[in-house]
Design brief:
The chain has a domain of 123 residues: Gcn5-related N-acetyltransferase (GNAT) (Aminopeptidase, 3-Layer(aba) Sandwich). It is 32% helix and 33% strand. The protein is built from 6 helices and 8 strands; from the N terminus they run ββαααβββαβαββα. The strands form 2 sheets. Strands 1-2-3-4-5 form a 5-stranded antiparallel beta sheet. A hairpin with a 2-residue loop joins β7 and β8. α1 packs across α3. The longest helix is centred in the N-terminal third of the chain and has 18 residues.
Length: 183
């Protein structure tokens, strides 16, 4: 199995991030409520940097950030991701999500992140998946526990105190790496 470019869940559709999503990413990054637990609102330059990294990740590894839409309305709901994360010098596989506030509290983060976890298990040679969230973001921590993840430790990253959740054996123990996609 390879990681799909697009997928559906019972209530969401997802497609890999493309340059055409730049305005939507900027809109997400300008939403103070959505970004409150992600380090705060980002300006246009920070959003452009995010886009470059997200597009490069897809190009290099054939997985990364997916943009989410509500299957019923077609409205943008947020994003979900499965990507490399260099953490303490170790190449980790990270799962993450961010939904617009209108989509909170409905189990959609769990729905989208569960799909990413299935892709990670089926297609990628990692023995562990990690997630980061704010120390006081209890709702996100509940989602991570429902994904089968457990608290690993507190860390500081980009000037922010975060909690690291993990499932499986750390990849530093297995030495797993994901090679770039062959062209």
């Amino acid at each position: 199995m390879t990681v799909p470019v697009a997928f559906s869940t019972p209530r969401l559709t997802a497609e890999c991030i493309r340059l055409a999503h730049t305005a939507e990413i900027f809109r997400m990054h300008q939403d103070p409520e959505q970004m409150a637990m992600l380090g705060g609102v980002r300006d246009e330059e920070q959003s452009a940097t995010y886009m470059v990294r997200a597009l490069q990740h897809w190009e290099e590894f054939a997985f990364g950030v997916w943009m989410l839409r509500d299957r019923q309305s077609g409205e943008s709901a947020g994003r979900v991701l499965l990507r490399h994360l260099l953490l303490d010098g170790v190449n980790e596989l990270e799962v993450g999500y961010s939904l617009y506030p209108a989509y909170w509290g409905r189990g959609l983060a769990l729905e989208a992140a569960s799909a990413c976890m299935r892709f990670a298990r089926a297609a990628l040679p990692f023995t562990s998946v990690v997630a980061l969230t704010a120390t006081d973001h209890v709702r996100s921590q509940q989602v991570l526990r429902k994904l089968g993840m457990a608290f690993d430790r507190e860390i500081e990253r980009d000037g922010q105190r975060l909690v690291l959740f993990r499932t499986g054996v750390p990849d530093s123990a297995s030495g797993a790496t994901v090679p770039p996609r062959s062209t």
